[in-house]
Specification:
GO terms for molecular function: oxidoreductase activity; S-adenosylmethionine-dependent methyltransferase activity. With 346 residues, the chain is of the alpha/beta class. The protein is 27% helix and 25% strand. The protein is built from eight helices and eleven strands. The longest helix is centred in the first third of the chain and has 15 residues. The radius of gyration is 20 Å and the shape is globular.
């Protein structure tokens, strides 16, 4: 691979352990099984949206983590993790205890120091990902838990971070409310997730090819959250002093098969209930030709764009700045970064 990349454990109800210790905490639907009757898309028995198979996502992430060359697929998570860490450094304080939701191989902690975060709690639905986490100087406790059901007490963490995990959540508003709940007052949530324009080149090519060869198309790219909705979701969850911004990361591949192979290696294959289980060979060949014709570069490579949405939200506290006409002001700054940062895959 070649590439150019931009750059106190408290009492939580967890068993005592050394840094890097393990816990398996139970909660409703833990291990991605979801609520009873959640075997299809739509609303589950409890009225909760059920778009993704959490059990399938767990299996995908476990499979990807066990690949002998799994580290070569970490380039996107490393890049986004470093940018989330940069946003942590922008806040001039030390966080005694931080939580990384869906952190897997811990791509955020490796960019942080003990002077900024004293202790980390790392959660993921994939046990294999947690076992293969990247080294960090910060004492870390691993918890096998589903991102949809956080098994932590209220007002526990000073900082919550998440990188490229929330786009697989069935109930994103509910997940944000849980994050708000486990934060201490004046605690901050810093997250990154893929946005609605992610992989638009692949989506368009597959739709055109499938329509031409099979007379219709099925969804092969999972639905993503639009940036216009993110600020409202954070505000409804109770956060204030909001910041939302966007980056485009463009990865260049030799062809469409390399795009799909890398998505599998990242554990980012589609896990929507209404996904189509396979693609016909003729459809893939047609999609490859369409992709190269519509989006191909002069050097023969094809781009795949990842729209990354970054969000920062604070749990209200009396020490925070307030406007004269509002008891608790919520301000959302939306900044679109121009230009795409490129990574080249061979």
């Amino acid at each position: 691979m070649s590439g150019r990349l931009c750059r106190r454990l408290l009492r939580l109800g967890l068993p005592a352990s050394s840094a890097g210790g393990w816990s398996r905490l139970s909660g409703a639907g833990l291990n991605g099984t979801g609520p009873p009757g959640a075997g299809r898309s739509g609303l589950s028995g409890g009225g909760r949206m059920n778009v993704f198979s959490r059990e399938m996502k767990q299996r995908q992430k476990d499979w990807a983590a066990q690949l002998q060359d799994s580290q070569q697929y970490d380039y996107l998570r490393q890049e986004v993790g470093s940018r989330v860490a940069d946003r942590v450094y922008d806040i001039a304080r030390t966080f005694p205890l931080a939580l990384d939701i869906g952190g897997g191989r811990s791509h955020i902690a490796e960019h942080l120091s003990k002077e900024v975060v004293e202790r980390f709690c790392l959660t993921d639905v994939s046990q294999q990902s947690l076992r293969r986490r990247r080294p960090s100087e910060i004492p870390t406790h691993c918890v096998l838990a589903d991102e949809e059901f956080l098994p932590f007490k209220e007002n526990t963490f000073d900082l919550v971070v998440s990188s490229l995990a929330l786009h697989w959540i069935n109930d994103l508003p509910g997940a944000l409310r849980q994050i708000h709940q486990v934060l201490k007052p004046d605690g901050v949530f810093i997250g990154a997730m893929v946005g609605g324009e992610t992989l638009y080149e692949l989506r368009c090519s597959l739709q055109l090819a499938e329509t031409e060869r099979e007379g219709g198309f099925s969804p092969h790219i999972s639905p993503y959250t639009a940036v216009t909705d993110l600020g409202n979701l954070l505000g409804q969850a109770g956060f204030n002093m909001l910041t939302v911004d966007i980056d485009d990361i463009q990865v260049h591949y030799p062809g469409i098969m390399e795009v799909m192979t890398d998505l599998q290696g990242m554990g980012e294959s589609n896990c929507a209930w209404n996904r189509k289980s396979l693609l016909h060979r003729d459809t893939i060949l047609a999609a490859a030709a369409i992709y190269k014709e519509m989006y191909g570069s002069e050097d023969g490579s094809i781009p795949a764009t990842f729209e990354i949405l970054y969000m920062i939200g604070w749990k209200p506290h009396e020490s925070q700045v307030r406007t004269p006409d509002a008891p608790c002001a919520s301000v959302c700054f939306c900044c679109v970064h121009g230009g795409a940062i490129s990574i080249f895959r061979t």
